[in-house]
Amino acid sequence: MTKPLVVFKNVQKLFGDFVAVKAINLEIHEGEFLAIMGPSGCGKTTTLRMLAGLEEPSTGKIYMNDQVMNKVKPHERDTPLVWQSLALFPFLTVIENVEFGLKMRGIDKSERKRRALEWLEKLDIIDFSERDISTLSGGQKQRVALARSLVLEPKILLLDEPLSALDAHLVIRMQAVLVQLQRELGITFVYVTHSQSEAFAMADRVVIMGNGEISQVGTPKDIYRSPQNKFVAEFVGRNNILSGTVFSLTNLGAHIETASGTFSVNLKTNKLVKGQKASFVISADLVHLSRSNPEAQNSVHCKLISEEFVGSMVTLFLEDNSNQEFKVQMQERELSKFDLKPDSDIWLSWSAQSAHLLDVS
Amino acid sequence: MNSNRILNIVLAAYVGVIFTFIFAPILFSVIFSFNSQRFPTIPLGNFSTEWYVKILNDPDIWQAALNSLIVSSSTAVIATILGFCTAYSDFRYNFRFKGPYLALILLPPTIPLIIMALAMLAWLSKLGMSGQLWSIVFAHSVLTAPFAMAIIRLRLNQMDPDLESASWNLGGSEWATMRYVIIPFCKPAIISGLCLAAAVSFDEFAISWFVSGLNKTLPVVILEIVQGNIDPQVNAIGTFVFLISMSLVILAQIFFVYRQMKSTNT
Fold first, then answer.
1. How many angstroms separate the CA atoms of A49 and A158, rounded?
2. Cβ within 8 Å, pair A79-B169
3. S-S: A355 plus which of A79, A151, A265, A276, CB 3.0-4.6 Å?
């Protein structure tokens, strides 16, 4: 692993009495694509703004290249930000916008122009260089905002929900552009978003934040398959969360008694004691569905509540007789084999390996 | 359908009447300024530029016009700087008593001019500052700064607050951001503010008359002529003053409204 470029050490941010960020610790590595994801108001944007120097931490320290950054003014940092509102200068043309940062750094006119044109070319907007910002489309503005930041050749680029204003098909296109840029340039991207699909599609590592705290840091796959706690499991969605008490322990795993029945769960590193409260999750795509009782260890009898059809994937929402909600995700063509009707008997089952224990919180 | 048409006609007539009441006196003043007869009566005499020739040859009037020009342009610059600073402080900072602060700044235009003029005279003469040309500039700046501030504040309210942070983020210091972002963004409003402050100052009579001493501006000269006798020169001067003020106000409108339209198109 490369050495950390940025380190957050016990960084806390208060706005009056409101704690926006609660003593977080985080390392951001050189050349990684890091996504900070969480619901609105979780402190993710405040974290990013502290990194850009637009907010000063109330306590704790932020290091960049081993230097404490707390008191460094925003204009003395090299942390360009791509804004959610884009914040392009409306009174300047496209190329003047891209040149702005170079001008502030006192780079002479011809050099400024040369570098700006190079980036306009790279981002495929060179034809618009003399145009007014107001005449551009959303996707083109997005590229101007990227060019304006990247022309400064920073070590780290901050992005604050930059794709939230774009149409869905443009989001996919821009995601590809961003990932490719990050690979090519080899610089660190810190990408703040509330969108799981954006974070999972692009990031090397994902930080999940909730209520000003970091809930989990890991690769998208880690977060998806092994959520550490209930907050992450719920936020990631498409998870079946079951809670109960530890009924018995074996050296392989545990049996957990819930309102829906007793289920076996494999133990990894979790330490459990008998009688303790415990929760576990099963990803919706790891649940098997059958029309007759599978007589398996982990199974429940359910009835269908509703289904959600997204392209080739279908999510079924079901309930057992204790009103526990279950979700099952599968291919549409697979589902059609079952010939489900609203009052059909359905059994769900999963293997003990698929059940993932959450940390007790 | 039919009643709609009647309503339209009534409304059009209403607007017509209002415009007639506002502009007819001015129009007559312009017409009589080209009339050869001494008294403003109908039927008119011949077309004549006699009164214009007369004022052009009157050094007192030249002096007054020059005074008016100096006063209104200096006032415009000072009032706009004051107005800009106030509007920016409102945009950028939150502080206690901000409400009263803004209310106080907007107060001067609501004070009856004659009261303000008397107060200014009393105050400036106590300080030994009355009777100068810049006494008028001082008093007019107080009077017109709120206009400039209101226009600039309106413009700043349209600004995405991220623009300022974006400039810092790209390496612009606070001063560079002021110069390359805030002022360019406010430019149309600043020009409108300059024009409007100049127009108000150029027209203003009461304060000028009280604090000017021997330095007369055009409105003061007009009053003095009218007090003495009936002289169509007044019409000629009036036409000139009207043209200048109107042009300034129209310019202010063009800069502000045009920009507005442009930015709402985005």
1. 9
2. yes
3. A265
CA angle A62, A63, A66 (to 5 degrees): 165
Instruction: Compute the half-sphere exposure of residue B194: CA atoms within 13 Å on the CB side of its CA.
Output: 13
A342 touches chain B (CB under 8 A): no
Task: Tell me whether B163 touches chain A (CB under 8 Å).
Answer: yes
Residue A62: Cβ within 10 Å count: 21
Q: Return the amino acid letter for A361.
A: S
Please give the ipTM for the structure prediction: 0.84
Minimal C-alpha gap between B150 and chain A (Å): 21
The verdict on A85 touching B (C-beta cutoff 8 Å) is yes
For every residue of A135-148, DSSP letters joined together read GS-HHHHHHHHHHH
Select from B163, B174, B265 the Cβ nearest to the Cβ of A89.
Answer: B163
Check B171 against A85: CB less than 8 A apart. Answer: no
Output the 3-class SS for chain B: CHHHHHHHHHHHHHHHHHHHHHHHHHHHHHHHHCECCCCCCCCCCCECCHHHHHHHCCHHHHHHHHHHHHHHHHHHHHHHHHHHHHHHHHHHCCCCCHHHHHHHHHCHHHCCHHHHHHHHHHHHHHCCCCCCHHHHHHHHHHHHHHHHHHHHHHHHHCCCCHHHHHHHHCCCCHHHHHHHHHHHHHHHHHHHHHHHHHHHHHHCCHHHHHHCCCCCCHHHHHHHHHHHCCCCHHHHHHHHHHHHHHHHHHHHHHHHHHHHHHHHCC
* Chain position carrying tokens 């018995």: A248
Count, residues in chain B: 266
A3 in contact with chain B, both atoms CB, cutoff 8 A = no
Structural domains of chain B, ranges and CATH numbers in brackets: 54-265 (1.10.3720.10)
CB atoms within 10 A of CB B168: 23
- B150, B106 Cβ separation under 8 angstroms: yes
Question: CA-based angle A296:A298:A302, to the nearest 5?
Answer: 95
| C-alpha separations of B164 from A46, A103, B183, B264 in Å | 17, 16, 11, 20
Taking only the tens place, the pLDDT of each residue in A286-337 is 998 888 888 778 889 888 888 888 778 888 898 888 888 899 998 888 888 8
Band the pLDDT of A1: cuts 50, 70, 90.
Answer: low
pTM for the complete prediction? Answer: 0.81
Q: Per the CB < 8 Å rule, is A80 touching B169?
A: yes
- Rounded to whole angstroms, how far apart are CA atoms B100 and B107? 10
Q: Comparing C-alpha atoms, which of A116, A92, A88 is closest to residue A102?
A: A116
From A322, A319, A224, A331, select the one nearest A281 (Cα to Cα).
Answer: A224
| Residue A195: CB atoms within 10 Å | 14
Question: Residue A37 forms beta bridges with which residues?
Answer: A193, A208
Closest-CA residue of chain B to A55: B165
List, in sequence order, every residue forming a beta bridge with A24; answer none if it has no partner: A11
**Token pair in block for residue A294:** 């599978």
